[in-house]
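Workshop exercise sheet. Pairs work together: one partner reads the sequence aloud, the other fills in the structure field after running the prediction. Swap roles for the next sheet.
Pair: D.N. / O.F.
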Amino acid sequence: MGNRRTALVTGGTSGIGEATVRALIAAGWRVIATGRRRARLETLVAELGADRLCPAVFDVRDEAARDIALAALPHDFADIDLLVNNAGLALGMARAQEADVAAWKTMIDTNVTALVSLTAKLLPGLVERRGAIVNLSSVAASYPYAGGNVYGATKAFVRQFSLSLRSDLAGTGVRVTSIEPGMVETEFTLVRNGGDRAASDSLYAGADPMTGDDIARTIRWVADLPPHLNINTIELMPVSQSFAGFQVVRA
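Structure field:
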C-alpha cells in the first residue's frame, strides 16, 4: 500500500473506533475518523494533529451527509487504503416478543445498511489501490443469547458479508477481515442500556473484560500484515468469558 497509507474508521469518537484511530496513527497511517460528535473529533485532531487525522462529521445512516463529507476530504486524505467499518450499536436486551421494533430497525440501519452502503461507495478505490476492509462483527454472530435477537443477526450478516466480499474480491488484491470480539468494556453497553451506568458496570464487574485498545491492536496487526496474507476472521474473548450453555426450560 506504500508509505502514505490512509485509513477511514467509522465511529471514531469513542471505544474501539477511537482506540483504532490512535493505534493506526501511532503506526504511521493517516486516518479519517467519522462520527456524529463534532466536539470529540475536534479534540482528537487537536491532540493527534491535522496532518495525520481528518475529521468527517456525519451519521453513517445519512448517505447524503456522508457523500458530502467524503467529497470534501483534503487531497492528502482522498485516497483510502483501509476501511474499518466499526460504527455500530445494540439497543436493549428485551426478548423478541417484548422488543421495540423501532430499536430493531435502528440496529439494522446502522449495523447493516450503513455498513454495506459505505463499503460499496469506497470499493472501487479500494480495488484500485489493492486495499483492505476490516469489519467489526461480534461473537454474537455465532453464539445466540436471550435478548440478542436482532443485534446478533446484524453481526451474523457482517460476518457473512465479509466472507462473501472476500470471495467476490478474489484476484483483486483486496483483503477482507471480520473481527469478532466478545466482552469489551466501552460505551457500547451504556448505550445498549439507555445510559444506565449501574447496569453497564454490573456486566463488567469482576470480569476483567477486553478493552478498546485490545481490539485496536488486533486491527492494527491485520492492517499492517504483508499484502499477500488475508485473515478471514478473528474471534477473541477475555479469558473470563466462554461459550454459553444451552437453555433448558423445565415444566
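Discussion prompt: The helical segments are 15-26, 38-48, 63-71, 101-128, 149-168, 188-192, 197-204, 212-223. What would you look at next?
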